[in-house]
């Protein structure tokens, strides 16, 4: 770990400049000032104005709860599935991989809407409401958003771990372990998984960014009042603040991850 | 390169799917007899027994939308616009990004880097929405014609994708320029444009195809998202629908692309889910074909290496 605070600040400065540029570009291009009647600390949803503070804290935590629970759930399920997949015979593994490519092609929107519609359909047919499928003002829903948000990361993580596992299987240390008479299960759990976790770390940034985009469409379809809804409905200063709310913690995470990865590489070079 | 790609079955299948989609979309009126509209359903006594929208069960294969237009017809009609717009956008993104990254490397401006850093945290759909809404406002006050609107919208969608690509490309170019044979080419006295044209571009070219396909997928997803947000390519028109007692304003997409079908009846999601799910599954299908192509390209690249 060689996390440096100054490089984090540098990154934040760069983000701030970027957001500033982005938020003023539309008005520069089209010559339209951000809604004149809008005050600085307000956002509008369907022509009703709300003040940004302190709503934003509440909504931010709500969104982040969904986000990280979904991420954890996705990671756990993906690892479990990979573990099960390693037990499959070789011919089936190819089929699994092909199936994963098919699943990965489903747009996030498709999954969100399909799950929502099927929940409603089940309710109509059997009268069994699995969980609420739409958020109404104060009634916060957790189950369906988390489930939906975790589907795509699960597929992606599963695919990545599956590939990594395949790569790892041919490495010398596995052969040695086999020769020593260690069981397949023991090797997978104790050695392969640990090595995969560190490689998996490299993909975390892509997955985080991808999930943020998913979170947005999820909030829109499920009508959740989260941070992304605010981001969609703001302009100017409050837009910048909303973006910073997401950017500050996430860039911190990225910075930590990158420094950690850098540390890993140094270790590897030392070992070599 | 192309011959090698054509030997990859996955690439071929994906490619054929997409090409046949576009071709079918252009020539279907002369080949197939697609019924365009049926607003009412009659029984044998010519009595109206149903009114649009019809579910896929009533009107196979895909049912109809709120106005009684058959979804099969809409999807076929929209395929050419959707896929061609996507391909054009993806191509232009790659083209401009390459163009900028050749200059970007020289001038050490951090302009693009800053924007890239910021766009990580803003979903692309929101970014596109931010630019599209002022455009619609402007279009409402001083109409600019549908073609101009489409061109400007495409340019926005291109512009959103360029900065991240520029940073990818400049990193790629930097790593190519650091290679030994490039360094020795420089020391033998060759000019920069020559090296870029002769060495850097060929090295990039295999990567370019891959990035092009990935950009196409991203653009398709972005289009679908924008459809849900009711930001339609080619603009939309609000019409009064329903009977005299129950007038409801509804938006009609002017260009026939798939996101437009989604956008104009998104509000009816729970009454007629198939209107949304059919175009969405066609989106999924197109993305799947492109994914197959990507798989093929990667396979051929790997066999090239070994």
TrEMBL record, chain A:
InterPro entries: MetI-like, MetI-like_sf
Pfam families reported in the protein's UniProt record: BPD_transp_1
SUPFAM superfamilies for this protein: MetI-like
Principal location: membrane
Membrane spanning stretches: 12-33, 60-84, 96-122, 142-164, 205-224, 236-254
This protein's UniProt keywords: Cell membrane, Membrane, Transmembrane, Transmembrane helix, Transport
Family named by the database record: Belongs to the binding-protein-dependent transport system permease family.
Name recorded for this polypeptide: ABC transporter permease subunit
Organism this protein belongs to: Fictibacillus nanhaiensis
Automatic annotation (TrEMBL), chain B:
Keyword terms of this UniProt record: Membrane, Transmembrane, Transmembrane helix, Transport
Predominant cellular place of this UniProt entry's protein: membrane
Transmembrane segments: 12-31, 81-103, 115-137, 143-166, 208-233, 274-294
InterPro entries per UniProt: MetI-like (IPR000515), MetI-like_sf (IPR035906)
Cell location: Membrane
Top-level division of the source organism's lineage: Bacteria
Annotated ranges, domain ABC transmembrane type-1: 79-288
Membrane topology: Multi-pass membrane protein
Alphabetical list of SUPFAM superfamilies matching this protein: MetI-like
Protein name: ABC transmembrane type-1 domain-containing protein
Species, as recorded: Fictibacillus nanhaiensis
